[in-house]
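Async update (no meeting this week)

Hi team, since we skipped the sync, here's where things stand on the single-chain job. The sequence we agreed to prioritize is pasted below, unchanged from the tracker. I ran it this morning and attached the output directly underneath so nobody has to dig for it. Comments welcome in thread, and please keep replies under the output.
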Amino acid sequence: MRGEACSSAPQVQTSKEDNNPVDQQTKAALKQDNFIEVTGTSIHWANENRRSVITTSVILLVVVLIAVGSVTIYNRRSEAAATDFGAAMQAYQTPLAAPGQQVPPGTKTYSSVNERAKAANELFNQVADKYSMTPSGKLAHYFSGLTYMEEGQNQSAEDALKSVANGWNKDLGGLAKLSLAQLYHQTGRDQLAVDTYNDLVAKPTSTVPSGIAQLQLAELYQAENKPAEARKIYAQLSDKDAKGAAGAIAKQKLNPNAAPQMQQ
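Output:
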């Protein structure tokens, strides 16, 4: 035979890791030791800081309970405020009856606007003071200003209405400004009234659109015997709000003898 037989079996290359099972065992042991060390450290930290962990958990629980309790208390207070405000409004809407006038049995009446306003004002102030952070409390504050006006307590009325006018509720603030302008006119401070109406025209709200403020301003000019200024406002409104309620009133003011047009 020529030459020696050659081995044709493929030789498998082995990695260092396969040839070193000790290394694999070492790595596995290291991983296990690391896990044990980390876990042990965590457990040790938890044990050492157990009091602070519990304290923090308790604090968080208390915060949540306070938040939930606050909402519940606010809702209850809002309901109570609404009930008390309803009672105040009922007094404010009580009918008037002259002394000796026949009224249905059991019907409560007041003999004058001043008497009724005084009784309602007391109730509105109670709601405003007790429930100042609720919607009904803020509304009661506004009505306390109105009833002060009806009582003739002008300074108290002005203070209450200014407080509402400067509040965050712009819609309620608009109503307060409208009442303030009327109070200024009643107390001979027409320039303040004009400035307030112009402010409402420039910054209208859903409760006091600019057209309403303009109409009130025009009426003030008429009361001051300034018909030219009043007509100017009416003319602007009749053009700007031709199809609106304010525009219709303005047209009627410009032509008081004209027959009202029937709507189609």
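Quick observations from my side:
The CA atoms of residues 234 and 253 lie 7 Å apart.
The radius of gyration is 40 Å.
Reply here if anything looks off.
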